[in-house]
Write a structure and sequence with these properties.
Order of helices and strands: HHHEEHEEEEEEEEEEH
Distance between the termini: 54 Å
Oligomer: single chain
Bound molecules: calcium ion
Structural class: alpha+beta
Largest sheet: 5 strands, antiparallel
Strand content: 15-25%
Strand order of the largest sheet: 5-7-2-10-11
Length: 214
């Protein structure tokens, strides 16, 4: 009651002093503040029944890991001799909030091979870290060449790919020479719980989350 009367009076300092005094004199310990008191009161008055647990039903289709592999049929066509970067060359993968492709949520991090691509004996793009972070590749470095392997990465900043999101894969190389790859989202790093593989080509480099989520 004291609070409501105070809130209509234009003496905020006085009101604060009264609230602190009430808190100290009442059932709260001496660490209690006016703000604590008001929060406790608000809690007892909340009868809406809302709680964070209600979100759990929409969290089922989300995944923290991404796998990218060379497109299997293209493996048979790989010509190793003279190819410094065998297979698809992945520079970066961007996770957008929605199809407008304007709000970036995350990039890849902690990329590793599983299993490592070893179709061709030489691969100048064999480092798994090339696909991490923002686009930074050029003609000679800054990307990962799949070489028949599977790249396993995690989304940065503890982000989970969720329904409604879009991912865009940045593959480097001349526009008419992009190599095919496949991508899917996984709930676990081992790849035991993943969505369907989707094939990427020069004309298909963006994927709605719903098509690759488990
Ligand atoms: Ca290549
Ligand atoms: Ca890169």
């Amino acid at each position: 009651m004291q609070f409501w009367r105070c809130s209509t009076v234009v003496i905020p300092l006085y009101c604060a002093l009264v609230l602190v005094t009430v808190a100290c004199a009442g059932e709260y310990n001496e660490q209690s503040t006016a703000a604590d008191t008001l929060r406790l009161d608000a809690g007892t008055d909340d009868s809406t029944g809302n709680s964070p647990d209600n979100r759990s039903t929409i969290d089922d289709r989300r995944a923290q890991f991404l796998q990218i592999r060379d497109e299997p049929t293209a493996l048979l066509e790989l010509v190793c001799e003279g190819d410094l970067f065998p297979g698809a060359d992945i520079d970066s993968v961007v996770l957008y909030s929605n199809p407008s492709l304007s709000a970036v949520r995350s990039y890849l991090e902690d990329c590793s091979w599983g299993p490592k691509g070893d179709f061709c004996p030489t691969n100048s793009g064999s480092g798994s870290k090339g696909a991490e972070g923002k686009k930074d590749g050029n003609a000679f470095q800054g990307f990962t060449s799949l070489n028949g392997g599977v790249l396993v990465c995690k989304w940065s900043d503890d982000v989970f790919l969720e329904l409604g999101n879009i991912i865009r894969i940045i593959e480097v190389g001349p526009a008419d020479q992009l190599e095919q790859f496949q991508v899917r989202a996984c709930k676990d790093q081992a790849g035991d719980n993943c969505g369907e593989w989707q094939t990427g080509t020069a004309s298909q480099l963006t994927f709605p989350a719903g098509t690759i989520l488990p």
